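Memo to structure team: turn this sequence into C-alpha cells by end of day. - J.P.
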Amino acid sequence: MLDKLKYFFNIGIVLLDNLIGDLNMNQYNLDSAIYDAVYRKVDSIHALNEKQREAFLSLIGKGCRQSTKDKLDRRLQIPLSLWKRYGIFSRVILTDNDVEYICGQSWTDEMRTLRECIL
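Reply from structure team:
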C-alpha cells in the first residue's frame, strides 16, 4: 500500500514539474530579454515579433496622439540589443504572442514612464 502511494506521489510530482516547466518556458521579462540580446546573443530573442509589438503598442499607446504612437511603433522595431535597460522593464512580461505588465502603484503613471523609457 505504501509503495503504491509513493508511486502515485512521484507521478504527481513529475506531472507538476512538467506543467510548471511548460508554463515558464516561453515567458520572460523585457529586462532579461534585453540583457540576453546584448550579452548572451545565443538562444535569445533579438527583436519583438509583430504580435508582441502590437500588444505592447496597445498597452502603452492608449490615449496618445497618433504621432506618439508612430514613434513608439518605430522604436519597438529596433533590435533589443540596442535598447537601454531600465528597472521598470522587469515588470513587462513577454510571451510568444503577447505582452503583459505587472503594475505596482499607479497604472497611468507607470505607462507614462514606460513610454518615456522607450522614447
